[in-house]
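Working notes for the structural subgroup meeting. M.R. asked for a predicted model of this chain before we commit to crystallization trials. I am recording the input and output together here so anyone reviewing the notebook later can reproduce the run.

Input as submitted:
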Amino acid sequence: MFKKVLVANRGEIAVRILMACEERGLATATVFSDADRTALHVRYADEAYYIGPAKPTESYLRMDKIIGVAKRCGADAIHPGYGFLAENADFAQAVIDAGLTFIGPPPEAIRLLGNKVAARRTMKKAGVPVVPGTDADVSDAEAIAEARNLGFPVMIKAAAGGGGKGMRLVSDPAELPRALAAARREAKGSFGDDTIYLEKIIPNARHIEVQLLADNYGNVVSLGERECSIQRRHQKMIEESPSPVVTQEMREQMGAVAVRAAKAAGYTNAGTVEFLVDPDMNFYFLEVNTRLQVEHPVTEVVTGVDIVKEQLAIAAGRRLRWKQEDIQLRGWAIEVRITSEDPYNNFLPAGGRITHLSRPTGPGVRIESGIYEGFVVSLYYDPLLAKMIVWGETRAEAILRMRRALREFRISGIKTTIPFHQRIMDSARFQAGHFDTRFLEDGGFSMGSVGNPEKEEVAALASALLADRESKERVTFRKMEGPAGKMSLWKQAALLGGLRR
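Returned structure, recorded in token form:
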């Protein structure tokens, strides 16, 4: 077993990995940028090292700096977390070439599965069902001809893509040339590779993924599935395990296919095989995420397997201590991603200082975060503030517990997506499990009345009037004149209350 791990990441995932290392008795080090000098992961690690300005390309994406820190501090392994360099095959190879252990899959598997076109070819050869589409880089002329064969709508995808970058949904043949050009530009800018391919759209599909663990001795186990269909612009918002539509028979089938996919790619460590599932419950290979997933806690909660600690053990050369028959799902888990975005303003990023933070507690509630009261949220990085995971014996209990926990979770000073998640939990369609990946776009979903600013204004006015009625001196509340009159009514009410106190 290695003795010291450098966590080459930031935020909640860095804290999560540092905790797992501590429970394994490992010394820890981490890195930070100018924007993260007072970040929680810096405080938690045994040692922390400065690596540059806030801009990721000058800090967290600098392979040379990170490997240099690892050598300087005496770390013998690096965990990349997710994002940044986690799925960079060149980084994994550079770590190995430096005589260090990379806590993740081998560079060859990352490189193979990181190219979606090569991954599709490998999966088809292994007998894994894939979404109909092209299996090679195509020119614009070839793409237009192939789109006619597939039938519209089609999805343009970046071969080196991820996170929704370089993706374009095309329903009208006349839009295809412009969409191809835009997808290539975005792919080139995001990944340095403008290779694209096409996939047939599967209407009303669900996004369901299977978590895997694989050791270096050919042993692979499936840890069940996660339902990830609640998405916005191809970004997951809410995940749960198990899926409300997957039967035990289907779970075993998907797990067996995922295991076959991992073996075909020579995969080891933790990974996720993603599938699209059509309304007839046919499933098709989508891609493999060659890293720890943001949503891994829901699987941990229902299986009892600590995926991060298993990553450490596998990287140290240990055999899996789990067999497939050992993996049983118990109860139901739901995760929401709380981000620093304004759901009332088209999810506009919202940086700033957190002036108040109150976390929910109670049975079945787990929070992973990298924030604290007084922390300044930077706009340089992903807006994820925290993940909240709840467990219940049934899906209904998990939803009710999540509603309660969201109501108790208070973050002041910045806008967050907590009201958005409250609205989802109140949705009858979500509660019934009747949704797919187009739920937010096509389901008539809106923020509705949860946290509605107009209702907040009414409530603030009512509170001010009640306070006035109970006071000894009667104060007439009327719309202010002059500069104060430009404030919203609830701000005026708050001001009056503050003056009275």
